Amino acid sequence: MAQLVFDAQAPALYLDIDGTLHAGSAVIDDAGDISLESGGKLFEFAPILIELLAPYPHVQIVLTTSWLKHVGREGILPFLPDGLRYRVVDDTLRVRTKLGEARDGTDRVSKILRHVWSRDVLTWLALDDRALGVPIGYCQHFVHLSSESGISSPDARAQIESWLHEIQAR
Predict the structure, then answer these.
(1) 1.10.3470, 3.40.50, 2.60.40, 1.20.120: which CATH number matches 12-169?
(2) Residues 74, 29: contact at Cβ < 8 Å?
């Protein structure tokens, strides 16, 4: 597939990595190697998302992960399977966080919303295990995941499938 380019009119999936595409949290060592604290497999749930998105080639991905602070988007891309990599069009690294948001844990949600608003994204869904402080009126845009099962849980899959069917019907 050809690399997608950001399009505010196209559906966007705001994607975390830890607790979303694999269980638990990743760590980076002094050599720059990334592994899971649990010893599990990085991106173990990625094939699920690839399968769900396959019929929807126009769905783009905006990375929202904390990995951005440590390795940047270019450092993340080689880890992503091809079926997700070509969809990555942007990230939230440069979106500012207020100190109070960082303190109370709502920084991820705030960064996603600021990105949506500043880029005029019309159709979007955020997948995250840290979806704290979602304002009323935006709950339908956030799938709050269990950090242990990520997108592999039946409920998460159902919510993603529902959104995909909804965008196809438009």
Answers:
(1) 3.40.50
(2) no
